[in-house]
Amino acid sequence: MNGLVSLVAIVALSSVAVPALAGTRPQEVRINKCCRLGEYYNAIDRVCFAGGIAKWVPKIFLPAKGQLYKDVGAAPPFMKFAEQQLPESCAIPTVYAVDLVTLMGNGSLFLNQKHVLVPVADYCIDERVALVCPARPDGLLDGAGGQMDSLQAPEKTSVVLRCCGTNFAYDKGNRTCSRLTRGHELYDSRIVHSPYVELSYGFPACKEHAIAGVFEESRLQEQTGSVTTDSGKIFSSGEFCLEHVRDDDRKVYVFTCSEHFQPASVPINKQDGRLVLYSAGLLISTIFLAATLATGLLVPSQHHVLHWRCQTHYVACLLVGDLLLAITQLSGNSITGPACTMIDFC
Q: Which InterPro entries match (predicted)?
């Protein structure tokens, strides 16, 4: 699901890009490589080591063609690399695995989980990692109404996943993310307003997802990124994501893995005619089973036959089983405690 969300976002970005004129030669693009050719960057020691592979380039998306570059590990002819060029716009860049980034045809770098394009000067790419300088926060104002310096901005203390991304919403019918048109009531809407929470994008890593409840920002722990649903269930950061549902109200919902969330059982209407008929049938069957058992006991000449003994035990088990099942169906959710446990073991 995360790969699908990233691909949708990349295609959306490419749709607003200016297409190249037919027959024109692509303009040369220079990209910073963290180390020399034949070397790779070690993120732990933050140094370059010899031993890089020949086809090291991460996946490249070409907006003009609307597709990924097919020669995996290589770069198109118009893309050139400046060796041993670290980004200079920050002292300590953030390290991203190459699986989490995508090179764009114009030289910018797309962060898959954040849905952010990074200009060439603010990153370098290598065989295993990309070093990215964080963008200057937008919209943060100081007390005088001026732009707040990035060093004065509140430090992000936790990361929360947004399922689909900015200007996307979850489509229940298609079970996927869909892009919102400009003018939609959810367009440019925010789901978390806390300056201490950093948003990343994607669904939790699992096969199936379920809606655990409605999100309330007052239930979000800014320090840890965990959230508590209205049912009292607590999900830690990474176990859930937040998103609007298309063609629904403006509420934000908590999505999580099905294995982390078991929805409450659907209440059964006790007036359902099918339930009454089923229970009545079970009770009638117990009457005939009891009669069969009594008849066998009243015929002493059959007691020594092995077949009679097997039949007696078989009928007795059916009698007890049908009787307990009828009681369970008629009582619904009213049986609790030890009685429920005993019936379960039987």
A: GPCR_Mth-like
Backbone phi and psi for residue 11, each to the nearest 5 degrees, phi listed first: -65, -40
The CA-CA-CA angle for residues 139, 144, 145, to 5°, reads 30
pTM: 0.48
pLDDT, tens digit, for every residue of 282-314? 888 888 888 888 877 777 766 666 677 787 888
Residue 125: which domain range? Answer: 29-132
Rounded Cα gap, residues 132 and 111, in angstroms: 9
pLDDT at 25: 62
Cα distances (angstroms) measured from residue 287 to each of 166, 226, 275, 293:
65, 56, 19, 10
* 241 within 8 A of 188, measured Cβ to Cβ: no
CA distance 145 to 70: 49
Examine the domain organization and report whether 249 and 165 are in the same domain: yes
Beta-ladder partners of 170: 177, 245
Co-location of 256 and 287 in the same domain: no
What CA–CA distance (Å, rounded) separates 262 from 337?
21
Establish how many alpha carbons lie within 13 A of residue 27's alpha carbon, considering only the half-sphere containing its beta carbon: 5
Q: What letter would DSSP give residue 88?
A: -
